[in-house]
Amino acid sequence: MAKQAMGTISMNQYERMDGLIYTLIYPQKPMVKSRTLDVVNFDKIPGGQNACMAVMSYSGYDIEDAIILNKAAIDRGFGRCMVLRKHQTSVKRYANGTMDRTCGPPDSSVFTDGDQDKRFQRYQAIDKDGICRIGEPMENGYIMVNKESPTDTTSNIAGVDFGFNAGMGDVQYKSSGMSYRGSAPSYVDKVLITSNENEQFLIKVMLRQVRRPEIGDKFASRHGQKGVCGLIVGEEDLPFNEAGHVPDLIMNPHGFPSRMTVGKLLELLVGKSGLYEGRQGYSSAFGEEHGSADTAMAASESLIRNGLNYTGKDILYSGTNGKPLDAYIFSGPVFYQKLKHMVLDKYHARARGPRAVLTRQPTEGRSRDGGLRLGEMERDCLIAYGASNLIMERLMHSSDAFSASVCLSCGLLQYQNWCQYCRSGEKVADIRIPYACKLLFQELQSMNVLPRLRLKDNS
After folding, report:
1. Least enclosed by CB within 10 Å: which of 34, 285, 291, 455?
2. Taking Cα atoms as reference points, which of 33, 54, 76 lies closest to residue 312?
3. For residue 8, is pLDDT > 70?
4. At residue 153, what are phi and psi to the nearest 5 degrees?
């Protein structure tokens, strides 16, 4: 497919690219709606799916609002979503007439292993114009736009053409391409070449990912009862009813008493009766004396007419031993939404990595490959356990350990075997302290506060 090229930005829907789009692949209309939904027509743009839910405890992985998902339901498309993310870079023109340029992939012969070299494979998604092709898979580190920028953008360079082909003279270039960073592969969905109000060329690339639910992904019903997936279980191991139906989702019953979400109980009951009557139900936690709202009493009568228990409970059989469970299980359809909080966007770990220049401590945040913070409360727990070596390792050795020299006479830090305060280089002891501690001492000294170190010999 050809790349879409436009001279200026317009508000045509095809040319606009949102920064981040989360969209469900198989959305459904909710089985139960309210009068408000009729007014705002929100069920015409559904954002979830009707899950057959059983209210029971299963294993220990559904504690504290966590839910259990049926692997077969996921295979059939439950909770599957598409994530579209925009990446963009600009091709700038500089004051001295030079300009960024895009280049095709380098010749494979310059690499040691030729076509099989990992450094060359980073360029396999881009075209001869240096921009990635639509439909190409993107792995971590792959180049999306192979851009080069001039090293000198200030001084006038002789022989530079000030036209569209600026930078064809004696100009040195450095690589400034846009590469893909991501833990999972993506596909190029759309490429747009346009410009902004400053007459800079913009290259926008939309990447697409299709994700299926995994452990740690967040779900919620329409009553604010959110929870992460604690376990994905095969259909053969889950409980089943007399008809052989297996629930798509298992929710722990402890989520009801403290939250008092009566509407969810009613949604399940009304939705179950609506299934057997082939219609959408109207549900309200308070019911209505007139109109077509379904009360709990009406839903119960409907269930009895269809040969079901009037409370919405069923006999379920264990998926592991085939015996009936000891209790009746409240089960039926509930409209569940998949939220944007997914493990793939959040998980983070590091061994060693970048450090801040000022404090020499690990940087902060997942995007900057930062460290995992051990805060004051975690430190208190380690002190309570008596794990002093672990505190030393986390807060100094793995963070910002620093070798310092201390003058034993005055207790101040000295440098290159010379104490500025005592005007002497004798009586020196070497210690290991966090660099942030040494920095604090220096900042205190700059405010005329003089901290002194009193050392004691361990031997």
Report:
1. 291
2. 54
3. no
4. -115, 10
- Statement: residue 10 has pLDDT above 60: no
State the catalytic residues. Answer: 65
User: At a CB cut-off of 8 Å and minimum separation 6, what does 417 contact?
Assistant: 405, 425, 428
Q: What is the DSSP pairing of strand 226-233 with strand 67-70?
A: parallel
To the nearest whole number, what is the mean pLDDT of the chain?
86
Name all domains of the chain by residue range, CATH numbers in brackets: 4-9+82-211 (2.40.50.150), 31-79+214-338 (2.40.270.10), 348-397 (3.90.1800.10), 401-446 (no CATH)
Residue 457 to residue 406: CA distance in whole angstroms: 13
Contact 242, 77 (CB under 8 A): no
Q: Position 246: which residue type?
A: V
Contacts 24+ apart (CB under 8 A), 2-11: 3/131, 3/134, 3/191, 3/192, 3/193, 4/190, 4/191, 4/192, 4/193, 5/193, 5/194, 6/192, 6/193, 6/194, 7/194, 7/195, 8/194, 8/195, 9/194, 9/195, 9/196, 9/197
Q: With CA atoms as reference, report the closest residue to 3 among 116, 102, 78, 151.
A: 102
Q: Give per-residue pLDDT as tens, 142-152.
A: 999 998 888 88
Average pLDDT over residues 300-328: 92
Name which of 248, 227, 228 is nearest 347 in CA terms: 228
Residues 6+ apart with CB under 8 A from 47: 24, 27, 337
Tell me the CB-side half-sphere exposure of residue 53, using CA atoms within 13 A: 22
Question: pLDDT by residue (tens digit) across 54-83?
Answer: 999 998 899 989 999 999 999 999 999 999
Tell me the β-bridge partners of 86: 206
Question: How far, in whole angstroms, is CA 245 from its chain's centroid?
Answer: 34
- How is the beta sheet containing 147-150 ordered, strand by strand? 101-102, 147-150, 173-175
Q: How far apart are CA 69 and CA 61, in angstroms?
A: 11
Contact (CB, 8 A) for 422 and 410: yes
For residue 290, what pLDDT is reported? 65
Q: For residue 398, report the phi and psi dihedrals to the nearest 5 degrees.
A: -90, 0
Task: Look at residues 183, 185, 338 and name the one whose alpha carbon lies nearest to residue 249.
Answer: 338
